[in-house]
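#onboarding

Welcome to the new folks! Below is a worked example of what a typical request in this channel looks like: someone posts a single protein sequence, and someone else replies with the predicted structure as tokens. Don't worry about understanding the tokens yet, we'll cover that in week two.

Example request:
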Amino acid sequence: MSELSVIGLNHRTAPVALRERVALPADLVLHLLRRVHAEPVLEEALVLSTCNRTEFYVVARRAKDLLGYLLGHAAALRGAAPVADPKSGPGLPVWVPGRSVFYRHEGSDAVRHLFRVAASLDSQIVGEHQILGQVKEAYRLAVEARTARFLLNKLLHAALRVGKRVLTETEIGRGSAGIAQAAVELAGHLFSSLRGKAVLLVGAGANAECAARALLRAGAGRLVVANRTLARAQELARDILTRPPEKPCDAGGPEAAGDLDDAATCPALARAGAACAPPAGDESATAPASEAIDLDGIPAAIAGVDLVITSTGAPGVVLTYDALAERLRRQDRPLLVIDIAVPRDVDERLGTLPNVFLYNIDDLDRLVARNRERRREEIPRAEAIVDAEVEAFNRWLASRQAAPTIRLLRRRIEAIQDAHVRRYGRQFSGADREQLETFTRSLGQKILHDPTAYLSGLARDGALSDNLEVLDIVHRLFDLGALEEQPPPEP
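Example response:
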């Protein structure tokens, strides 16, 4: 019988140059799923394609060269040359010498892999929230394409439950693990709330986008984007601040060098023509008012904001003491300035002004380090939730096999027989009672004969998802779940 499999690659097994060749935007995922639905190779299929992974969850009718089959379809849809496993044939490029960049898990191992992905335990930054929304979106596309049937429906509902449990029952997702979001987190603590606050973002790169996303979620009221190139500031203000931001930001910026690659800015899907799904819970976010200025406009703009976050790549100071000190002295309200640039953007002398509160990347590094350490400490609790959910799913799956279902069905019929013999047996005695018992046993066996033969046939042939659905219906019709929780009667 066919079995659940996951085939894929991720940030641990493949460089970004390969991941971006395999990544699929949502529209191509939908096309791929519709194609495989029309062919007799897969019973079920789901594609999870994010910045850092592309994974195919499948139940296959034919197990031969599934990887080549799936990647061939993906390449055809993208209009690109096929990407293949380095070990799968001659003449194919080897991106990671000596080993495959693709992994494959079967059965229970595939279940565990998905649950760990949904719980963000397999992410670059453990505890990031975006992955749960991405899993949910992958499931939605599979349902739309009609490639998520009984098994994947059950599996994905379980995976989403696991992800939510880990986020709510542990501290693994608490606190920002990236510099840009940590800057917004710090500002939120210092102001008590960022709702309605006016913010000046200096710089329009990846960290500015991440900060903009976090500010959007925090409810900032007005954002001004300043950049050396005005066109780039206008692009950020238009494309990021006027709609829910699309790129995941919990991977951080320069502080992540060494354990993260540039996939944090999502080049794979960006180059594929799509963006990562927004995190769960962002659907109701509304964009603040925004405007764009060049760097010369900073002195005029800074007088009207509550918070400044700077993240340029300039080689020297951008917010100078000479240009801003006199103007800031005349302000009658506090100004929080968070400099996350390396080299620093802000003249440190501005921090000596009585109403200016200046923080730099070293201050945020300490906050990020505490948050990451707290997340690491929560990993065992999160893994324990995954273990328990995998065990529960495996028990459910084992119970929906033909042999245990037949045994439980027989116990149910035997329990009905025994109940009726006890109820009516007192009206009979001797040989009459024996005949009653013989009659009820014979009737039970006749009732069981055809269903047992049919269920036994499921074990030999038939599609896995169809079989599971039939067996699940039998369990619900005869309330076999109640019997599973009871020990079998003494022989």
